[in-house]
Design goal:
This protein is of the alpha+beta class and 242 residues long. The chain is 22% helix and 26% strand. The longest helix has 33 residues, at 2-34.
């Protein structure tokens, strides 16, 4: 009896030691994998987060994680303070990175639930080259600034960030090519393969401006989250650039 008891205790001790050693090895492997790679912190979901969950309720359902910089999504969230007063506008899965575009104030979220278009707004779609649409890193739910740029003979050279925090309701684009497995881990991200159709929610007067610029000039989109400072803009012309 005593021999069997001692054997059982020894088995338990060995199991605990083995588990501890395995955890230490895995953590060490993660550290070795990140060695020499520039990393940044980002919040990720640790369990499913339903749509319309308030950001204030995310404590305990998200955690900070260190990721290689090339794997981090644009507009990442590093603190729940960045989402104060907002709610999730889509379901989030465990392991998914938190980005500002997936959250909005409750009024905007409700309007999106009612068809994707805020009340009183209308949609207009423009065809843009990747460099004029944030390199293709743009998705429905993002908010953008819209700059209009003209040159003769339409009018004198000038550019103006005319519209602020415009809601993107739809993006259609060719998929990005897969990254070459032989490329360096810290190499550049794949380039978009073609133009993008970007649909914006705008007022009637702004719809006119967007169409006129698309027909007679150029449009540029800026990444403009709801917390962006939009003050200080003006019409920029050759004489005022400097």
């Amino acid at each position: 009896m005593r021999t069997r008891l001692i054997a059982a205790i020894a088995a338990v001790v060995l199991a605990v030691v083995g588990t501890t050693a395995l955890i230490a090895y895995v953590r060490g492997a993660d550290a070795r994998a990140l060695e020499g790679t520039r990393t940044v912190d980002v919040l990720v979901a640790t369990q499913p987060i339903p749509k319309n969950t308030p950001a204030a309720s995310l404590v305990g359902t998200v955690a900070a994680k260190e990721l290689p910089e090339m794997a981090v999504l644009p507009d990442r969230v590093t603190s729940l303070d960045q989402l104060a007063g907002q709610v999730a506008i889509t379901d989030l899965l465990p392991g998914e990175q938190l980005v500002r575009a997936r959250f909005a104030d409750p009024a905007t979220a409700r309007s999106k639930d009612q068809g994707g278009l805020p009340e009183g707004m209308q949609e207009v779609t423009v065809l843009l080259e990747p460099q004029r649409a944030l390199g293709g890193h743009i998705a429905a739910g993002d908010t953008v600034g819209v700059a209009l740029s003209f040159q003769p003979p339409v009018r004198e050279y000038n550019t103006h960030l005319r519209m602020q925090k415009v809601l993107v309701t739809r993006v259609q684009a060719a998929p990005m090519p897969a990254k070459d497995e032989k490329a360096a881990d810290d190499g550049p991200a794949p380039m978009p393969t073609g133009e993008l159709l970007v649909t914006l929610a705008v007022t009637a007067p702004d719809a006119e401006r967007v169409i006129f610029a698309a027909e007679n000039g150029k449009l540029w989109l800026t990444n403009e989250p709801l917390t962006a400072n939009e003050s200080g803009t003006s019409i920029v012309a050759p004489g005022s650039v400097y």
